[in-house]
Structure prediction request, 2013 residues.
Amino acid sequence: MAPYPGVRLGVAYYPEQWPQARWRTDAQMMADAGLTLARVGEFAWSALEPEPGHFTLDWLEEAIGVLADAGLEVVLGTPTAAPPAWLVEQHPEILPVDVDGRPHRFGNRRHYCPNQPAFHAASERVVDQLCRRFGGDSRVIGWQIDNEFGGRCYCETCRGRFQEWLVERYGSLQHLNESWGTAFWSQTYSRWEQIPLPQKEPWDPSPSLALDYLRFMSDSYVRFQAMQTARLRERITGQFLTHNLMGFKFAEIDYRKLAADLDLVSWDNYPGLEPDGGHSTAALAADAMRGLKRKRFWVMEQQAGPVGWGLMQSPAPGQVRLWTYQAIAHGAEAVLFFRWRTARFGTEQHWHGILDADGSARRRFRELTRLSSELRELRQQIDASAPVADVALLHDYDSRFALQVQPTNGALGYEASVQRHYKALRGLGLGVDVLADTADLDRYRMLVVPSLYLAGPELASTLSAYVHRGGTLVLAPRTAVKDRFNAVPESSLPAWLDSLCGVRVTDYQSVSPELGVGFAGDGESFEGEFYGWYEELEVADASVVASYSDGAFAGSAAITERKVGDGLVVYIAGVATPPSLDRLYRRLSSRLGLRALQLPEEVEAIRLEGRGDGELLALLNHSEKGQRLSFEGSRWHDHLSGASGEGSFDLGPYGVAFLEGVGLTPSDRDR
Amino acid sequence: MAPYPGVRLGVAYYPEQWPQARWRTDAQMMADAGLTLARVGEFAWSALEPEPGHFTLDWLEEAIGVLADAGLEVVLGTPTAAPPAWLVEQHPEILPVDVDGRPHRFGNRRHYCPNQPAFHAASERVVDQLCRRFGGDSRVIGWQIDNEFGGRCYCETCRGRFQEWLVERYGSLQHLNESWGTAFWSQTYSRWEQIPLPQKEPWDPSPSLALDYLRFMSDSYVRFQAMQTARLRERITGQFLTHNLMGFKFAEIDYRKLAADLDLVSWDNYPGLEPDGGHSTAALAADAMRGLKRKRFWVMEQQAGPVGWGLMQSPAPGQVRLWTYQAIAHGAEAVLFFRWRTARFGTEQHWHGILDADGSARRRFRELTRLSSELRELRQQIDASAPVADVALLHDYDSRFALQVQPTNGALGYEASVQRHYKALRGLGLGVDVLADTADLDRYRMLVVPSLYLAGPELASTLSAYVHRGGTLVLAPRTAVKDRFNAVPESSLPAWLDSLCGVRVTDYQSVSPELGVGFAGDGESFEGEFYGWYEELEVADASVVASYSDGAFAGSAAITERKVGDGLVVYIAGVATPPSLDRLYRRLSSRLGLRALQLPEEVEAIRLEGRGDGELLALLNHSEKGQRLSFEGSRWHDHLSGASGEGSFDLGPYGVAFLEGVGLTPSDRDR
Amino acid sequence: MAPYPGVRLGVAYYPEQWPQARWRTDAQMMADAGLTLARVGEFAWSALEPEPGHFTLDWLEEAIGVLADAGLEVVLGTPTAAPPAWLVEQHPEILPVDVDGRPHRFGNRRHYCPNQPAFHAASERVVDQLCRRFGGDSRVIGWQIDNEFGGRCYCETCRGRFQEWLVERYGSLQHLNESWGTAFWSQTYSRWEQIPLPQKEPWDPSPSLALDYLRFMSDSYVRFQAMQTARLRERITGQFLTHNLMGFKFAEIDYRKLAADLDLVSWDNYPGLEPDGGHSTAALAADAMRGLKRKRFWVMEQQAGPVGWGLMQSPAPGQVRLWTYQAIAHGAEAVLFFRWRTARFGTEQHWHGILDADGSARRRFRELTRLSSELRELRQQIDASAPVADVALLHDYDSRFALQVQPTNGALGYEASVQRHYKALRGLGLGVDVLADTADLDRYRMLVVPSLYLAGPELASTLSAYVHRGGTLVLAPRTAVKDRFNAVPESSLPAWLDSLCGVRVTDYQSVSPELGVGFAGDGESFEGEFYGWYEELEVADASVVASYSDGAFAGSAAITERKVGDGLVVYIAGVATPPSLDRLYRRLSSRLGLRALQLPEEVEAIRLEGRGDGELLALLNHSEKGQRLSFEGSRWHDHLSGASGEGSFDLGPYGVAFLEGVGLTPSDRDR
Prediction:
């Protein structure tokens, strides 16, 4: 990952929502606040095409000009997330239908089925007009396709397209019937047209059908985006294409496929909507978004104040600044706040921007101005830094989809499992790249696969190769339980991986997630606990790291490892509690020579690769209380405060530091 | 408010549900129990018009005669709340459609869309027949229109009518688009026909559209009632028109508009359905119903026993009597129990009347007989009394509707906010008129507006005038946040009222309603707490009554007041806890010379204006435990028990007293 | 009840889901595990009739042959629970419609409306083909009709059939209108076609209509089954007909009517799906299933491992064996595990069979093999034993349906009420026959009717006759509240039974189920508590066993009894807590000379009638902890372990014993 070219700040701006007379004031205030980027246009379809085929793009060009005059560059959104009323009136079939068969109504946004021909046609037309006009405009530096793709449709058109998608995937009904096992419950299909839409509990369909429908819906958005990128690429010069994704937790679309067609990943970051204040969610999201294309990302929307129309909790003073630095330390090269001025109208009136709805610049404006000034000061240091990762964490959209279909034991929840491992690793100060694909794994000392419910021989052989080349692979329970058709393979678990692990799952206990079972290391002081789910292992060719101390499998292997040349495979047979994972990874890190830090729970430490010789460490205190950190034997200089010192370091409430020095970073790889 | 003409008791009676042979027995038993009023007919459509256009009204006349012979006067209901099966069969379109688009089925009640032409026509016909026959019948003293209007329909007819309603309200689409801010999310309408019905979470429509739909649905009932009242007024002589409303908590219809067309407000009182036993809910309801026309009301349905088909909790012995006295002390001039005999059939079999389903007269009958005899004894005192209010509390249906659309922080709930202020005021023994309009405010020493989410310049100037004429106005947080289109005004908050208050809201914290922040009075011992929501004020021209003692705004103003001539405006910047409100209102009362009582939580004291020179105080103990009240230096006589005494007074479990004497009432205004 | 002919074990097997090459292996492994029965075919419609009218039955005959070769006899299922895709494609109207009007989709099972002519026709055709081929096949010993009937449809065909059903039941609309009391809320019907389908809360229909619809839906399945049994009986020789019912808790179908048309009751037992581990649910289910035909039953599906796709909790080691012995001790003459091999495909992938999905025989196979071997050892003892009951417990499907319509106070829940009384009786070690009809009551010393919400004069006179002939009848509160039309009778409660009981209900208190009221015996140390619901009794001709010690009815009768010759009627006026019921039944048992045991909560004792002179007692420990039982003065021999001893006996975790000896059983009737 290349060093930062300097982090830019920007904002979402909706000129169509404000009087033209105000535009220059807004643009000047943005410039005064230190902003250099504005995203515009992504919800402006009815302003750009007020009647079918009648385009009015002058106002947009005017607005771009006003922004440019104040020194702002523009990211232009295609407006397809909000089809106009006239289009819905002409083609009511574009309204999506929910799983119960109810069509949505006009009046919100994202009110389209991604498979409707009339919607594709209208979208193509408006995108075409936009890129004809702005594809060569140097004031426009990039394009955002649509806005926050998502939503699953269950209309008859989707059903037809799904059947076509299946034809392409399976070729013959015989192949489909066999792969899905339709002999079960007499579901054999004799004509493609018989294949239904999936339905809800308690009428759960075949897991194979359900998984394929989730893939198909994901592919429908990928296909819709591809139509737009193709159109744009015919016309644009020197502009990037992006889409604003929704972080790690959003699991309706295979972001790996979506990102493949983009020049740049950007995403929207609202930590305030997370129950816990969201710092770990935001960190995981950032690392996962960076992992999609293995390069820096933009935060296209950064929470600027209270949001939502429920509790709409206010960020504490300092918290928005902290979130911004968090994004930067995790690899953001631009951060755009959402939004400039709080809306006076519409569903998002309570979604606060930088300015208040009355147009006043108050606390949020002042804080932003200070932040951008601070960032300019820090530019040299940030220019030369990038997050460093010794560990890769692999997540897999197919497994995520499969676990949406039949989640089984609550302790096995996909997102929670990933987050638990991620937090344990990050709690040691280890840098983690969160990847959705298996290319180029050899650069990582350790590869953690916290949940790999669905697998296949190809993936298994990739993992095996990684280990054989010296890597350390960590697998958690319930690995490779299903094949790519969401059927259970006719082999022992973990399927295709049992030889590599040297173990075989012979039984398991699924108990209430409130219940646990203990394990302890053989001949060393290493204890821990599983909860909800734990497996009995038959150990064929592996060492037992820990054994069950009680429960149905007392005395047998709970954690195993198998050496493969210089490589190592660790199999964790149950859902480990956070303290257990902490101990486990601390032990593994030490073994691999990755020095772990002791960090308070609410403090993040991100090791950066800097320009100088010294170690560079970003520190983020996500707590309302001050924190003291101990770096024994260290000497440090904080680029933010300008202070220098030795040994320990104090972080204020919601405080941030960029320390450079010696004796700071958790890895001794470079020593 | 004029003195009581004596309180009458009555009952809902359904002759069509019982054999004609039983009617005389029932009527005689009613008379024996001391009843003089019966409501009949409001669910009898199929008995009155068994086939389309074929009317059979003789039985009703016969029943009225039987009742009259026993000395009962009749309130006659129009039967439109329960359209017959044949009408639904002929016109299935009259069935209402829910927000998800599902039509209801025949088989309950209120199964009509208030906008269907066929339903209007059939209703008009049956009402016409009824008033031709009974409009001049002196045994019928009044009419109840329909029964408990309510329910929101989402059918295509409603959609069309809504569009017409919008044409009338906005005149042009340009005006609508601007007022609603449809530029947001590309929702600009180019034809009225494009305007959709609102839909549910998570597909929330524009708040402006949603609010207008709620207003439109409310207006639909007002219009339907107007059709009936117009018909009736063509024929009736000397009979009043009423509708049975559902108290304060029912917030689907603007009762101010509904009541405007009625001669008399009546309402239905089921405190047993409230979670807390409902005494404060019933008290607020009574004061709000009295406030609609600023005159005494009827309780058209008073709970007589266990009700519902869930828990159907039984009233404790003495509780029904207590509820009846509560209604009387709050201004009821008639109380009709629901219902005479417990239904043997139908959905309300478990909704207990005075008699059991087997026709037996048991405890409820005996208690009623004692109550009516007791009331006859008390008639002289009650005749000469009326509740007295120094305080007005203003509630606003538009604000209530607006907060239904996007409730934001749970601490800001409309009904709960009103109830909290109401309880605090009533807890001091202060009389409160709960008003839905701003006429004639000058008679009140204090005007409390606990939640005024939506406002406008006209209302602001009315409030200002009240203060300038010497009134004390109390405003709570989140005041005047929206204009009448449910858009955020382009001015500082509280919009239109900032000059009057002398403060401006510059920031706020929205936190979980479990979290609070303290405030304390400057230079005096006055402390309190806000929770959920609190605002930062810029004080332009006001005194700071209390400042934040912690939280994001520590040290700045939490409660302010501004003197305006003899008038005063108090702005409370956060959601105050009940103890804080108690202290605040105690302080304000003392300042205004309104003497506050010290009352146990479960005891209500209602100051009455009596005939004599002494003070008159109704006391109601809503607890199962006896209570001792201290009136230092008082002398009293209890009209109910006949006892006299000095100083303290004992109320038994669920006990009631009507004390006359000196040293009793909470106000020293008259001294 | 005749002695056991020896208990057989079997398994559900789906040859259509596995390669034919595997069949012989499976069959041999089944035989090795000691199985002698296999159920096949009940979900194989699309394999048996891959195209309309084209039947392929050879594979099934082949599979039956393979099983027979290994010594297994076959129960053949009719495959109507899973109509094929082609049938749904041809006749989409067969898809059931839910209460909200939404049609289900193809893709699960039970996706049929039981009233659709096209579905009846197709079902008849496939059943006809099957019984032509296998009706005389001696390898097939019986038939299972369909699979787990259930599900309520609300389609227009059902509506039409319901109207016809009503014509048959009521004859005239006048009779229906009067019986339902349609005068209430103007619901009088003038044409049968007006009668609607019932709808959901808050739009509850008339309770009379709702109850009749539940009866009609139940009858629809009875009728559909009758079509199949008629077809089968034309062809079969020496084969039994059964259906796999769903125990006591399933309350959508009147199992009394369903069982009447069957030769044998079988049912499906999944205790692991019950919140409490289900031992009491399974025991009650077994006794209720045995009571349907008053003879031994089969367990057609016995849980073999983790099931479901939620928590899918694993049975503890030993628990499946325990469940099997529990079924046997309650009267099972065959137990078939579900299923042989865990499915690789389809909705039930996580519903574990004996083998794992990979075909491996692991712990569950080994445990089954041990169990079947153990059972063979025990055969002699089991052959000669049968459960003995002194007590009958009556449940009534009409009352169950009626309480589904309007449940009122939560403490009155039908299934919970029955279970509470059942547990109290079984906790004393008393044998209980759970009956759904009133034939042949005289053989029981005590008849408990824990909930008889709906009654009539015929049932009342049957109960009266039982008492007059010397029986002891126990009635709990809320008895005979409704007539068979779900209307409240015009008589005092308990209607038709007040003279027999010698009491009349004059009032009641319905309070939150968390609240209670105490009662105490007159002149003896007997105390207890009611909760949720308790009644005031007017005692006409009965002795007061206990009086209220507090609450609204303090001092009046809480439990009464009336001697009628040698008989006795006990009326319990409230919902008694478990400890209170325990004391009550202990007192009654002692009075009737039924000796009660002292048992730990988690231990079941089932008294069996054995071949020898000694007492025979099955003991089941449903706890993970060992238990010591005291039988003072006893001598015993455990047929399972072979051990003998005196006095006390130790049961291991999830342990089972079949004790023979003296001084063991709870009844001294035979002494």
